[in-house]
Amino acid sequence: MPDRKDDVYGDHISHKFNDELMELKTQFLEMGGAVESQVERAVKALIDSDGELAEQVRLKDKEVDKQEVALDEEATLIIARRQPTARDLRLVISVIKMVADLERVGDEAKKIAKLAIKLSEEGQAPRGYVEVRHIAGHVQSMLHDALDAFTRLDSEQALRIMKEDKRVDEEYQAAARTLLTFMMEDTRNISRCMSVMWVLRALERVGDHACNIAENVIFMVEGEDVRHTSIEEAERVVGG
């Protein structure tokens, strides 16, 4: 990878500032690992009709919320104490934005857990679990790769995640059409299929948040904001 994408964050005369930036990055990745686990466990609870596991996921969300508050406070203190400029300011601002996305991923995992509890209480497994497994695997990979791109300051990998988001949207739309067909074939499927539809929607939103994290990685590395731009424009920024 080009030298400009090396980890230049945390290279200051002040060792204390170095430590603060490294701690911020470490805490962010710990929160990322927590929400990754939340999504994985929520989907497992759904597929396995495991109400107990789903309840654990639901309760764990409070810890994710606490991590968000702690990270926001730490980032705010760094800005107040150090008044960072250029690349360091981009890092701190990006972490603040990405933490909000991680918290929302946690919220989506909690939604899936609540739906898993509801469906497990209803008994019969509804149609659509094949689609859930497929999309869940896709967005979990996106989230993992987004966090990895942050760790390695890899804007090229972040760009690939942005491209994957369109595929997830297409997969979600196809799965929704399949579930609508099930509901039309037998109206008794409507309630359960609607619950699965909401699960799919939550997973699609996880993909959106992974894409947002990827966009912020590009901002950190390249210094340009690629939100609300075309993939072609993002390619220009990363390849420029």
Strand and helix map with partners:
Blueprint: H1 15-47, H2 51-82, H3 86-122, H4 129-152, H5 155-185, H6 190-222, H7 231-239
Helix pairs in contact: 1-2, 1-3, 1-4, 2-3, 3-6, 4-5, 4-6, 5-6, 5-7
Report on the architecture of this protein.
The structure is a single chain. By secondary structure, this protein is mostly helical. The protein has a single domain, classed as Methane Monooxygenase Hydroxylase, Chain G, domain 1, CATH 1.20.58. Helix content is 83%, strand content 0%. It has helices at 15-47, 51-82, 86-122, 129-152, 155-185, 190-222, 231-239. The longest helix is centred in the middle third of the chain and has 37 residues, at 86-122. Residues 29-115, 133-217 form the PhoU domain. InterPro entries: PhoU, PhoU-like_sf, PhoU_dom. Keywords: Cytoplasm, Phosphate transport, Transport. It is found in: Cytoplasm. Its main location: cytoplasm.
Mind describing the biggest β-sheet? none
End-to-end CA span:
14 Å
What would you call the shape? flat
Low-confidence stretches: none
Which homologous superfamily in CATH is the superfamily? Answer: Phosphate transport system protein phou homolog 2, domain 2
Report helical residue fraction: over 70%
Query: Rg to the nearest angstrom?
Result: 20 Å
Q: Which H/E pattern describes the elements? A: HHHHHHH
Mean of the pLDDT scores?
92
* Tally of DSSP helical segments: 7
CATH class: Mainly Alpha
Key traits:
Phosphate-specific transport system accessory protein PhoU; mainly alpha; PhoU-like_sf; phosphate transport; 7 helices; 83% helix; 240 residues; PhoU; Methane Monooxygenase Hydroxylase, Chain G, domain 1
